[in-house]
Every structure is written in C-alpha cells, then in structure tokens.
Amino acid sequence: MVTALVADEADAWDRAGLLPVPLLRELGAAGWLCAQVPVVSGGRGLSSAAAGEFTAHVGSLCSSLRSVMTSQGMAAWTIERFGTAEQRAAFLPRLTGGGLAAAGFSERAAGSDLSAMTTRVRRDGDSVVLDGHKVWVTAAHYADLLVLFGRYDGSGDRGEDAGAVGGGEAVAVVVPADTPGVRVTRVADPLGCRAAGHADVALDAVRVPAGHVLGGSSLPLPLLVTTALAYGRMSVAWGCVGILRGCLTAATRHAATREQFGVPLGEHQLVARHLAELYVAEQTATRVCEHASRCWDDGSPEQVVATVLAKHVSAGNAARGAATAVQVLASAAARDGHVVARAHRDAKLMEIIEGSNEMCQLMLARHLLGRTV
Q: In whole angstroms, how far apart are CA 174 and each of 44, 52, 103, 166, 195?
C-alpha cells in the first residue's frame, strides 16, 4: 500500500516541503501511522520487530513520511502508556482513524537538557492552562492533536480535586491544534526531512479540560520523557536502516552500470570498497535494530540501553553511509531531487533528533558505569 502511494513522489514532496494530507489521513485510517497501537484501539497491533521492518521500508522510500509516522507513533505511545482507560478510548481511535498527531518536547533552551523545560501547565478549576513555546515539533504542521510536555504549576489548584494534577513535576497534555491560543509556525527550510511538517508551537493561555492531562497526574520528568522518546528512538533507528537500504540500492545500481576507463565503476577497487562499507553499515544497523526490537517484544531489562545503542549506531551509519553513496555516484547525486542527495540531508538530521550522537554516547557510558541510562 505504502509503496504504491509513495511511488516516485518523494522527490517532489521534498522539493515542495509538503506531504499530501489526504495520503496521511488514508495511511492513518488504515492504522499504518502508529502500527503498534493495539487492535482493540483500531491499530495494527504490530510487534516492535514487525513495525520496525515496516518503518525501514517507509524510510527507504521517504524519510519525511517516516518522520510523520515517528511523531504520530510517539503521541500514540505516550497516550497508551500514560493515559487512563477513558483517555485511551477517547484519543487512540482518532489516531488510528485518520486523525493526525505530533508530540512536542524541545524548547529554545531545552534541547538535550529537557530538565530546562519552561512550558507551564496550571490547574484552573476543571481546566488546565498551558503557556510556553515548543520548537521543532515534527508533523505539527499537519496535526489535529498535539501531545505536549510541560512543568506542572499547582498554584491554581482548589477544591476537592486539587491534588488530581499535582506533584510539581511534569505532565503530558493532549491539546487539539485548533484550540484558541495555539499558534503553529512552520520551520523554514529545514536541512532534512523537508516535508515532515516541522513546526514551532506557541502556547498562549491555552485552555483544555483537565481530563486531557494523561493519567490525570504529574510524573517525574525523566520517566515521562524517556518513555516517549524510547519509541521515537526505535522508529528513527529503523528509519535509518531504510535510508541505508535506499543508498545501497542506488549506489550498487550506479556502480554496476556506469563505466569509467573501460570497465564498470564497481570493478575499481576503491569504489568496491565503498560498496562493501555501505553494505556493512546497513547490515550492522539492521542487526542492532533487530536486537533492540527483540528486547522490546520480550520485555527485556536491556530494552532501554538496546534502544539507545540502536539509535546511535543506525543514525551514525546512515549519515556516513549516505555520504559514501554520494561519493560513489559523484555528480549524479550532487543535486536536489536525487534519492542519495535527499538521504544525505535526511541522515544528518537523524544524528541530532531523539537524542544526539553525543547524548547517546553519554547514556551508553553511564550504562557501563552502572548508572541509569
């Protein structure tokens, strides 16, 4: 289904910086934008391994579309893990029925250090009010629902339910994108995944029912954010496998058909080395992702560190692999509109989002030193 819908349109979408909303809604209504949501909620109920292979396939076709899947999946995963039964019943069918969603964490002064988050959520009677500014929220341009993370300010609590959203920690709130006070502004000219709908989200006295606070209470910020980001890291990791597969296909085809000095390009030893290294990068990324997905599906205590490892290895391999593919194709790929040129830009962004290379390295080192990842 996805292959037929994407066809050869990815380059045009990248140039325009937009994905067709009807296509997104069609994929969403078929359960493919958040395929791990349980069948009872309208999802596909896929395992991490099956969802990962699907994500890699989409990533090989169009990283912008895969990025929308990642954001939608993070929003759905957060609702599923932290929402009450009533909230899951209210929101998840919307996300598996054609509705679009995005999850927002980062702020201007809170990127890798999300403890610096300044978005505030305060209780006011039967409502909560949000004030703040999120940046680089993938898919926010398309979203009907925004799952936003903020610090809870209990100064407005009163009455019998005063403690229901208390604790002075953090909350995740489901905010309809058309709520008064929400302003979504697209990120201009992003380096990669240009059609993924990256946007900044300003919140000016945004009022929603208190029942939109997932779980109805605050939680420790590290638990809340790490749980949501874990899904994003897995999705990005598998998406990077897709980037590598797309690059490997393009580079191998070119090296087999392009002749220089009277022989196919691939018969020159230095070019052959590039192809071999690209294959090793794809296979290595695939194996670490398969291991991480097994940890998810088995409920292994190694799940967290395996996820960080998969994201780090896959993103780094994708960035280096895409650069290698550009080297093999040379001028043939040195222009916008070529799958390898697009992959080169998209892959670099993967080394930054959902935990930069440096943050992943720090988390892996902490794991080795016996500290919490």
A: 22, 26, 9, 17, 24
The encoded tokens of residue 153 equal: 């300010």
Tell me how crowded residue 291 is: count the other CB atoms within 10 A of its CB: 15
Structure tokens at 129: 């009010």
Report pLDDT for 165. 45
1: how many CB neighbours lie within 10 A of its CB? 9
Check: pTM over 0.85? Answer yes or no: yes
- The predicted pLDDT at position 300 comes to 96
Between residues 63 and 224, which one has the greater pLDDT? 63
Q: Which of the pair, 111 or 244, is modelled with greater confidence?
A: 244
